[in-house]
Amino acid sequence: MFAMLVxxxxxxxxxxxxxxxxxxxxxxxxxxxGNLRFDVLRDPEIKTRFYAYEVYVNEQALEAHRQTAHYxxxxxxxxxxxxxxxxxxxxxxxxPENLTNECG
Length: 104
Hints:
Elements: E1 2-9, H1 15-30, E2 35-42, E3 49-56, H2 59-65, H3 69-78, E4 87-92, H4 97-101
EC number: 5.3.1.32
Enzyme class: isomerase
Pfam family, one: ABM
């Protein structure tokens, strides 16, 4: 599995518009066969900072996601809402959920 955390900083007053734009990407991504998880999180202390936590079956599934129409539309519509470029961090999966459930 392949996980990624994306930080997105939005201009003040544009939070609701961000959520509307990103919801379309969320719905489309969850329908992709290679996507296992797509969570959208908001920083409780910085209300204009959001995170997308994405999990894919492999790196090829992430690349396929980046080729979809909903991804390209989202990136284009987010550009004027952001304070700067998104930051992305990739992770290797070391403890899948099914293993952690066995621990308690």
